[in-house]
Amino acid sequence: MEPDDSNTAENSTKKRVPGKPFEKNRPGKKDPRINRLGRPKGFDEARKAAIAMFNEKVVVNLANGERVAMSRFEMLMMDWITSRNYQKQSKAFEVAYGKGTESVLLNLDLRTLTNSQLERLAAGEDVYKVLMTKE
Known about the structure:
Among the domains are: about 55 residues, Helix Hairpins (Orthogonal Bundle); about 30 residues, no CATH class. The longest helix is centred in the middle third of the chain and has 13 residues. It contains 5 helices and 2 strands. A hairpin with a 5-residue loop joins strand 1 and strand 2. Helix 2 packs across helix 3. By secondary structure, it is mainly alpha-helical.
């Protein structure tokens, strides 16, 4: 491979960001931003332990007095979804459907909507707001 074919900052077609470009290790010149440590050694073990804890079954007393066995993850998701905190609800939605609401497929039959709902949609109002408000 010739030097002109490399993917260096000089040959890149990407938009440049402010600052000094990263320099590879050269004799006598070492870039202080290099990460020689990498990922922490205990990271994989901590992740496995967290996953195991989330999958543990626990007995939960529901509001109606019923006792149900569910995983800690299910318990957390139920707390987030039923919370009045918008941030928790938003995070639960992201877990379920991915980032942003664009990934949610809305199967909506327009014939079931009232004329006022259709007018609101035509005016550019959010679909979910139109569906959630009572007429």
